[in-house]
């Protein structure tokens, strides 16, 4: 049986989620509003402690809408050197908003307030002005690492001290909250805008949301439409998100537990080393002599699927379609390949 650990985006809607989608009350979201989408947006805004929210077709559109709202052309955006916005949004900030990215490396696995403060340039007629700071929590590229609330508040304080707004890429903020017990609204309070995704750990087929002030989301509606995100009977999609909040949000600790079990099982195999997981993502670093692409290919021959994150790093992501038996089998396949050197 196929075990797909490439991402938590590979999940398929459950039968109950499909029924909720089929039965959704719908309207025209562009003309006069979709009732199910309106309910979801109000619910998410409340969960995040924001005045308003907008449903987005994707997390990337949510991030890029925030960038367009909060940054200015000809300025720079400061963010972690390995952020999703840097590597996986196709230079959207440059193309769509005319802003360049200034990459910040923290003393640990993700950007911290001290590194941000050091990276903010002294005002000069020769350098671009900063217009936005972006944080990512959890941090995908760092292996689902959590920026604790105290550090996120320090990042906010640093940005505010320079008059710079903060956007939070919270695609997996659900996981950060589940793992730490920190309320979503406490994390979100650190940012002017926050994006959350429904199509990752919550198991929805499509979508995310951007939340912020009423005025920002009113302008964001136009940005979203300009980017091609004006949806019609979007209630078919937002019904899935409503179902996920009711039935899938509370089970996220199961994914975290399975990630830890897998990490413990594969750590050290063939000289490899696990990045200890905070949430549902496991990064496995290989010796320099091993090729992650070849190892992933060998595992796929056993119908166990990982992502080669780099030439010497493999990523595994745990989600609602992965069982305890899947953890055991995937670990056995991977450790067997690493032990054989093939």
Overall geometric form: globular
Total DSSP E strands: 13
* Overall number of domains: 2
Report the order of strands and helices: EHHEHEHHEHEHEHHEEHHHEEHEEEH
Considering the protein shown, what is the CATH homologous superfamily of the largest domain? Type I PLP-dependent aspartate aminotransferase-like (Major domain)
**Helical/strand content category:** alpha/beta
Oligomeric state of this protein: single chain
Radius of gyration: 20 Å
Low-confidence stretches: none
Reported for the largest beta sheet, the result is:
7 strands, mixed
The helix content, as a percent range, equals 40-55%
Please tell me the CATH architecture of the largest domain by its name.
3-Layer(aba) Sandwich
Residue fraction in strands: 15-25%
Q: How many DSSP H or I helices? A: 14
Query: Biggest sheet, strands in spatial order?
Result: 2-8-7-6-5-3-4
Distance between the termini: 22 Å
Instruction: State the name of the first-level CATH class of the largest domain.
Output: Alpha Beta
């Amino acid at each position: 049986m196929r075990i797909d650990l490439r991402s938590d985006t590979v999940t398929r809607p459950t039968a109950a989620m499909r029924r909720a989608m089929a039965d959704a009350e719908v309207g025209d979201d562009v003309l006069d509003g979709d009732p199910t989408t309106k309910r979801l947006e109000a619910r998410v805004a409340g969960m995040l402690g924001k005045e308003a929210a907008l449903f987005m077709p994707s997390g990337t559109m949510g991030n890029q809408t925030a960038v367009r709202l909060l940054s200015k052309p000809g300025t720079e955006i400061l963010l972690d050197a390995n952020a999703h916005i840097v590597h996986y949004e196709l230079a959207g900030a440059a193309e769509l908003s005319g802003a360049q990215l200034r990459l910040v490396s923290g003393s640990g696995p993700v950007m911290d307030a001290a590194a941000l403060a050091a990276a903010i340039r002294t005002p000069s007629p020769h350098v671009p002005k900063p217009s936005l700071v972006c944080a990512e929590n959890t941090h995908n590229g760092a292996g689902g690492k959590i920026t604790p609330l105290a550090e996120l508040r320090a990042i906010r304080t640093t940005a505010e001290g320079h008059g710079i707004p903060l956007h939070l890429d919270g695609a997996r903020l659900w996981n950060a909250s589940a793992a730490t017990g920190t309320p979503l609204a406490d994390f979100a309070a650190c940012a002017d805008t926050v994006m959350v995704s429904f199509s990752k750990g919550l198991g929805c087929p499509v979508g995310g949301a951007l939340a912020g002030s009423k005025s920002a989301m009113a302008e964001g509606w136009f940005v979203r439409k300009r980017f091609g995100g004006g949806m019609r009977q979007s209630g078919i999609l937002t019904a899935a998100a409503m179902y996920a909040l009711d039935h899938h949000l509370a089970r996220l600790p199961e994914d975290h537990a399975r990630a830890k079990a897998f990490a413990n099982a594969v750590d050290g195999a063939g000289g490899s080393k696990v990045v200890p997981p905070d949430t549902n993502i496991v990064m496995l670093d290989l010796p320099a002599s091993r090729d992650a692409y070849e190892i992933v290919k060998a595992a796929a021959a056993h119908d166990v699927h990982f992502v080669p994150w780099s030439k010497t790093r493999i990523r595994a992501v745990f989600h609602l379609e992965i069982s305890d038996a899947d953890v055991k089998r995937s670990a056995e396949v991977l450790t067997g390949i690493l032990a054989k050197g093939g």
